[in-house]
Amino acid sequence: MDFQRTKPPVTDLSDFLLGLPSQFRQGNTELSYNAQNYFALYIQDAWKVNRRLAINIGLRWEPYFAPYYNNKEMLHFSMAGFLADQKSTVFTNAPAGLTFPGDPSWNTGGSFSHALYDRWAPRVGIVYDPTGSGRQTIRLSYGIMNEIPELYYDDFVQTGPPWGNLITNTNLPGGFSSPWQVWPGGNPSRRRCRPPRTPLSNHSPPTPA
């Protein structure tokens, strides 16, 4: 909800105290059931070549397992599919270029991508004492580090159609007490937004204004 200055000398604070918002946004509730597996292996060896030179070598294997969504509320957009006017067979009213789990071209199951197993990260460290006195050292190191997206990186998809909605109303004659007073049909979040063919359709209770 926003309270913005509209006509002088009215201020944002005055609108707030009078309960006269300039914008009201509301969306339906959503259930997320996401998970991701992660593990890595690391081996290391320290080799003291002589009293002046020491080498530390390590290798990390860190496969990537994509997050999976048990409710399969995912979609993928292809510009090539859009230009070719390819439509989804799961949600036939979706715009061209969008595919969903269950479409022939969707081959990653409940994830957005396949697992990546060929992910190796070597590390090398060198310590050299140029004088042998132990009072001065030269250190060199090199390593490859991997990063993975956070679990909820793609979770924004679940807040949009065809599973979620977010409606902005800027016509508010009823003010804060009745933001949907003139909206056709009343409060839109009281109606179920999730498509009937989605298994979790009964998990979106109405959201009161």
Helix content: under 10%
The value of Rg in angstroms is: 28 Å
With strands numbered from the N-terminus, the spatial order across the biggest sheet is 3-4-8-9
Instruction: Please count the beta strands (DSSP E, at least 2 residues each).
Output: 10
Tell me about the largest β-sheet. 4 strands, antiparallel
Number of helices: 2
Shape: elongated
Structural class: mainly beta
Strand content: 15-25%
- Low-confidence blocks of residues: 191-209
Order of helices and strands: HEEEEEEHEEEE
Report, as a whole number of angstroms, the end-to-end distance: 12 Å
Give structural notes.
The chain has a 4-stranded antiparallel β-sheet with strand order 3-4-8-9, with no helix packed on it. The protein has a two-stranded antiparallel sheet with strand order 1-10. Strands 2-5 form a two-stranded antiparallel ribbon. The relative contact order is 0.21. It is elongated and about 85 Å long. It has a domain at 1-30 and 164-209. 6% of the residues lie in helices and 23% in strands. Residues 191-209 have low confidence and may be disordered. The protein contains 2 helices and 10 strands, in the order H-E-E-E-E-E-E-H-E-E-E-E. The longest helix is centred in the N-terminal third of the chain and has 7 residues, at 12-18. It starts with 11 loop residues before the first helix and ends in a 40-residue tail after the last strand. Strand 3 and strand 4 form a beta hairpin. By secondary structure, it is mostly beta strands.
Topology:
Blueprint: H1 12-18, E1 24-27, E2 34-35, E3 41-48, E4 53-61, E5 68-69, E6 76-77, H2 79-83, E7 98-99, E8 120-128, E9 138-143, E10 166-169
Antiparallel strand pairs: 1-10, 2-5, 3-4, 4-8, 6-7, 8-9
